[in-house]
Design a protein that fits this description.
This protein has 4 helices and 6 strands, in the order H-E-E-E-E-H-E-E-H-H. The termini are far apart. With 185 residues, the protein is α+β, with helices and mostly antiparallel strands. Strand 3 and strand 4 form a beta hairpin.
């Protein structure tokens, strides 16, 4: 019973870390990655479709992303979607593909992105703490239902706190790595 609560707690805290790492991929670092355009949706014959499903998206160098649509008719909807996404660059359409030229980041931009990352980290920590609360509530319910003793309940809650501390440390470590990546020139 108690081990099931621990497993539930670990599994859901890991989901919070996985979500944080996914969020981190949308942040721009020193070199450009195609994940910057992952959340852009294009109107594909009335259906909002992700950019990488309507064309080839590749990073040709450290500051350029090239998008080659599967159909030429999609050039202007892709261009419009990129402009509406407001990712900090204007698309250059040459008639057969679109290029996005990202200027080198200034130190102010880097600091702004670090702030965004800190917000994502705080969100992940809140998520982990909410899972801790759920786990503790389940333990207290087991104690109330007389499935475990008061001592077992206290030990279980201490174990959940240790698990929480472990996952908070993992979040902090992920942030340190991402911050170094963002600030690296």
């Amino acid at each position: 019973m108690v081990n099931d609560v621990f497993d539930y707690t670990k599994e859901n805290m890991q989901k919070g870390i996985d979500a944080l790492k996914r969020d981190f991929t949308t942040l721009r670092t020193g070199k450009v990655t195609t994940s910057i355009v992952d959340n852009i949706k294009v109107d594909y014959y009335g259906t909002m479709t992700t950019l990488n499903q309507v064309g080839s998206v590749i990073a040709t160098d450290a500051t350029t992303i090239s998008i080659t649509p599967w159909e030429k008719a999609l050039l202007s909807p892709i261009e419009k979607a990129i402009q509406e996404a407001n990712i900090g660059v204007n698309p250059n359409n040459d008639g057969s593909f679109i290029k996005l030229f990202f200027p080198p980041m200034t130190s102010d931009q880097r600091q702004g992105i670090v702030k965004q990352a800190k917000g994502m980290v705080e969100h992940a920590k809140v998520s982990v703490r909410n899972v801790r609360k759920d786990g503790n509530d389940k333990i207290k319910k087991l104690e109330k239902d007389k499935a475990i003793s008061e001592d077992e309940s206290k030990k279980a809650q201490e174990q959940i706190q240790k698990i929480t501390d472990e996952y908070i440390a993992k979040i902090d470590e992920a942030f340190k790595i991402k911050e170094a990546d963002i600030l690296k020139v």
